[in-house]
């Protein structure tokens, strides 16, 4: 288990204690029955607390409603990238999103074969810095066509100050994407994004180069599966001992956001971001602050798991990379010091 997991808080915050300055309730006059005062009458402080709670719920509901048009548009984009293009491709039209599965995505949405060397992919750069000195390899989650991943790559580049290169985890619609998540968890079946990521990491490590990678949602699950594949190759193909494998994989810096994986191999330097209001990592990933199944999960040796609570009443909003998780991201070295 990760050392950071042992610091998981299981305590429920207590209510705010009364201060000495708070007046005591007055006793009823002798001629006045104790129950004469309405049980629904509240003190000013109670009313303020109730109004604050109600206002917070209203704000959360309004925030969730405001996000709905965006999600409708995202759904339309997925439908177009899958069903519509699947049909039109039969008549010589554009290929569906699955045709780019496991391929590299670079600046301008340029898609390159999985055999392309990482250094040859023109990455997305921050808007305020066309020549960053760092590169991040990014794997997206479910229901994300190439254009959607490109937008996430730009947001990640702007947040991190690094060039971002994508490995595309193609979408075939909600049902098939969720089914693939199940097979990824079981480490069964072929996933082109897993294969491309594993091959790229193995090649970079063999060349003596460090790699910084980010996995979001199912992309975190793909990352965990690929890391396990790399560890196996280092043991079997290179004959490295378990200790040597860990040392070799120590050249990998790994960040996950809202990831759906419960276990990660030892060796890489990890920072995991988990929003307690996000059902994806809390139910299918490393879990939230309170998790009765924490003993079954492993964030990786020495991992830092940053848990926080943010969002509204829309669970999809609470899972978004660009509008939620990246607000909480800090520099990787700072995060490794657990300074958020």
UniProtKB/TrEMBL annotation:
SUPFAM superfamilies: alpha/beta-Hydrolases (SSF53474). Residues 35-48 have a biased composition (Polar residues). Residues 1-48 are annotated as: Disordered. It comes from the Bacteria. This is DUF676 domain-containing protein. It comes from Corallococcus exercitus. The lineage of its organism: Bacteria, Pseudomonadati, Myxococcota, Myxococcia, Myxococcales.
